[in-house]
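#onboarding

Welcome to the new folks! Below is a worked example of what a typical request in this channel looks like: someone posts a single protein sequence, and someone else replies with the predicted structure as tokens. Don't worry about understanding the tokens yet, we'll cover that in week two.

Example request:
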Amino acid sequence: MRQTLFTNAFIHTGRTEAEVFSAMLVEKGHIKALYSAEEAAAYRGKAKVVDLQGRHVYPCLIDAHVHMLLTIAVMAMGFNLCQITAGGVEPNTMKGVEERLRNYVSAQKPDAVIACNNYIMTAIDEHRMPTREELDEWGGGRPVVIYNIDGHSTSLSTKMLELVGISPEGHSGILQGEENERAQGRIIDTVSSLITLPVLAKGIARFQNTCASCGISVVGALEGNGDSPKDPTTGLIARLARHFDVGVRLYLQYVDLERVKPYRKWMSRPRVGGCGDWEMDGSVGSHSAAFLVPFSDTGKTAPCYYTQDFVDQLVLEADKGGYQMASHAIGEAAVERILHALEQLHSPRMHRIEHCEFVSEESFRTLCKGKYAVMMQPGYSWIDKRYLHTYERYLPSELFSKMKLKSLVDAGVCVCGSSDSPVQDMDPYLQMLGMVQFYNEEESLSPFQAFRCYTANAARSIEEEAIRGTLEVGKKADFFTADRDFFTLSPREIVDFRPVETWYGGRKYRQKKGTVPELLAMLLRKPKQI
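Example response:
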């Protein structure tokens, strides 16, 4: 394959804030050399030359925590109930929710399953989820499911309750805490049964186009639902992902490790965990995050989903099986539970804690040993502080000091930014805005530090720092171009920052159309490991 020389650019390697080159030589999808302008001029004539028009060049981003199947489904056939605007959240009353849902339902078939995302309970004046009786009326008797923005509360109509095997007799239709987590597989199976080939083609194209438009080259896909006996959609999405332009690294959310084994032959490294059955607790907005102190509005604490003995045994078995592990933990009691289990190991792998939002002093000291990766989504707390006010309503103020970011980064902890899509939009620049304007202002990062959380650190979290995360000789030539120097931007400018072009392996990404022939052609390509 012929060499390509990318010239006339400010190529930020991402190793340090100041390191910049003028040209980059790419061969067979990897970086062969980095040059100054003078060195590049001497090399002309020996390679195909691509003029990058004086733009800034950065290593592609890695979104290490995405629920890919649900994201594709939402992009193809989803409906967002609430929107965050400059003036607040709309709609913000139950009446407004009713009107918006009725309008959507009126355009659907009588037998359609209605799946609604981005319901923002804490911004609704009534501060609650809709009941099944309300959904029965608003949805005209159809199966309806509404997901709260935190992903840990859902509302189901009577028909949907019946479809997922929950008796509606005496049930409000509102699922929270462990009951909610253990029903998600059956809900996803029901919704996914409606995904036709044209819908699937559209969703996959939109997913990849979204990644490229944000400068994302790889995602950590947390998939699988233990409460679904066969979980057919996970097998489908795993097979399809092997043909994507975007790199996919699969984490299977099964505690039954026998269910993971059939996928190992496709995986670049054995991985298990994430959310689903690997959750230690729920979320703040649903009052299911496990804290050591009570919620301020209810005076109650939420329990961890598993006992310490169970978690210890689960982690030990997974580590002996050679798996890198990931586990959802938000409250400081939940973080302590998974850390206790991990600390019993002598593992060469970097295991992950997903979210890790509130950290006790003991957990902070453990994390500072540098053995674990921490996945964060600070964009959510940025939104909450300005629009939703969930934390200030539900949590005692003493917990806010346990929201760490800069302290972890300064201590050398592998802190990573991610979206948790579709719980949040895949926009990485919202998450980086949340890092440079962190909930605790004294824990805020610089733009360069935030960028590293999406590049070098994220590459470590998927155990691929040797091949991606920075622009260095020998690494993948995954990069994007931009008109502005990201490292010098103000917070207001960060949220509006977008790449101009994205290149995977030295080839410019072309937007997908989302047609069935395009999808079928994609499947003819040689499959990659995930």
